[in-house]
Amino acid sequence: MKNIKLFSEYLHGKYGKPLHRIAIDLPLSCPNREKSGGIGCIYCASDGNRARHLRHNFSLKEQVSAGLEYVQRRYRGNAGYIAYFQSFTNTYGDPKQLRAWYEEALALADFQMVIIATRPDCLGPEILDLLEELGKRYELWIEIGVQTSNNRTLELIRRGHDFDAVRQAATALAARNIKTAAHIILGLPGETIADFDQTAADLRTLPFQAVKLHQLMILRNTPLATMYAAKEIEVEPLNEYEYAAAAVRFLHQLPDDWLVMRLMADPSFEPVIAPKWWMKKSQFISYVQGLMAGGDGMRIITADGSPTLYHPEYHQHFHSVAGAKTEAIIKFVQPSKIAELKNPRLLDIGFGLGYNAAAALEANPTVEIITLEKDLRTLDAALKLFEPESLHYKMIATLQKNSVWGNIRLLHGDARDSVQTLPSQHFDIIFMDGFSPDTNPELWSYDFIRELKRVLKPDGVITTYSSAYPVLGAFLQLGFGVAETKAFGRRRGGIIAQRSGINELADKNSNIILKSTAGIPWRDPGLCHSTTQIKSLRQRIVNKLRKRGIPKWFKE
Q: Looking at residues 513-535, what average pLDDT do you find?
């Protein structure tokens, strides 16, 4: 597959308008759950991944009505409908009863298409007869839960069938001229790129017409969640970029004429333990399409139209995908009130792509900025994001050559070293914008923040996007007053810390920080230790305190 042809594009091309799925939940289970005492596959949600708006025991009429209302409210305009029998196994039952349910549901709206999700081991002769009849009246697609072609993995995840069952099902459906899509999960426990490649190789020999890709998600209240917490299973959930790279490699190995029904799972945020993704669905699809076309995959346009980059070492974006430029304003410029100060001095920790420095200068042209950057290759990458005639481009290009541009001076090197060369009580404002504390604790340790306190004026402030408990713990232990700032792109807000302020955190958060090990800061004596050493030292401190009876988490 050289390029992705999304299922939505296929629908619009064939029907001249979008078709939207109306999820229908039949009162079915699956053989795997019955054989395992109700457990089923280790990753499966207890509701069988039922549509979000079908959380009650609606009748079929109520379900279709709710689905139509949801689609009309969300999408509006000219659209058609797909009857989507999604949750659990929709061919697992008495054929006569299934026929009755199908007919009842399909009579409730003007459906142009029918999609039925099922397992490869639930397609007996009578079921195939029923599906063949439906296929003569509707465009019918059968989604077959394949997941992987590795029989060892199928057994590990308690799938209840082997890959030979998939071969038989796909062949039997093709003999009846029924279109099929293979549902695949990338990132299953113990699997590597070699396993993904083998699954792709096995799939392309079978008569499928589409593929539906999902990342493995660890959902709350599933067997996998329990096993993951207890470290009883080998699994490392893929982040957006790891999964995107795996998906592109996988798709390139499939036939060109296959459709892509889905590129990623899109669950509600709450039930997902891991992985936590921040990229929106539309951004992710655009990103993957760029990779398929041969792009490097580092650049992404955020929600406010401003570009950002992905850092392959830290596995993070430089800025929130909710808006790189907007984040600089909401998380740093506005809380600091820099626009209200006369000739303020700003220390910008982590020049990165230059958004914070540019936003500060735009808010107050009199500001004097010292900005710190360890990796000058970042500036090379940043230049590719902006038009050569833009002010942002000129700022970065000049700093790259001369280290000075107007009121901005760039110090190159480890920020821990650079900050020790700066004069005491010199800055009105400090922007802390390193990569996240769990991946880059060097710039969030008690010892580094103590050095920031030294260079900050007595009435100065520090603003940052992070409200991680070890960071808050460091600020409180150093005598800062701390308050939470407005949330943007995350559920929690950032923080503003003042040397002369008072603690304005909620009592619950203060207790978590001060009365449990959650708020133990990272330590970096000498400001010279590696990420691994800093993390190891904190863990040793936490272990000692736990032995003394300090809880892992404060509970009211």
A: 95
242, 338: one domain = no
CA dihedral 114, 117, 122, 128 (to 10 degrees): 20
Rounded to the nearest 10 degrees, the angle between the axes of helix 95-106 and helix 60-74 is 40
The conformation of residue 329, written as its DSSP 8-state character, comes to I
261 & 330 share domain: no
For residue 417, give the CATH number of its domain.
3.40.50.150
pLDDT (average), residues 19-35 = 87
- In this structure, the answer to whether residues 234 and 344 fall within a common structural domain is no
Per-residue pLDDT at 72: 85
- What domain range is 399 assigned to? 324-542
Taking the C-alpha atoms of residue 416 and residue 23, their distance in angstroms, rounded to an integer, is 55
Residue with tokens 């695949």: 184
* Residue 522 in domain: yes
Q: What angle do CA 443, 336, 278 make, to 5 degrees?
A: 60
In a domain, 290, yes or no: no
203 in any annotated domain: yes
Could you tell me if residue 548 is inside a domain? Answer: no
81-117 burial, b at 16+ Cβ within 10 Å, e below that, comes to bbbbbbbbbbbbbebeebbebbeebbebbebbbbbbb
What mean pLDDT do residues 220-249 have?
91
| Residue-wise DSSP of 262-302 | ESS----STTEEE----S-HHHHHHHHHHHHTT--S-EEE-
249 burial via Cβ count (<10 Å: 0-12, 13-18, 19+): middle
Q: Is the pTM of this model over 0.85?
A: no
Task: Assign 381 a pLDDT band (cuts: 50, 70, 90).
Answer: confident
What pLDDT shows up at residue 508? 83
Cα 90 to the chain's mean position, in Å? Answer: 29
CA distances from 303 to 25, 299, 323 (A): 34, 13, 5
If 0-12 CB within 10 Å is exposed, 13-18 middle and 19+ buried, where does residue 256 land? exposed
* Tally of domains within the chain: 2
Distance, CA of 312 to CA of 318 (rounded, Å): 11
At 145 the three-state DSSP class reads strand
Question: 56: left (phi > 0), else alpha (psi -120 to 50), else beta?
Answer: beta
Q: Please tell me what DSSP assigns to residue 6.
A: B
Is the predicted pLDDT of residue 466 greater than 70, yes or no? yes
> Which H or E run includes 105?
helix 95-106
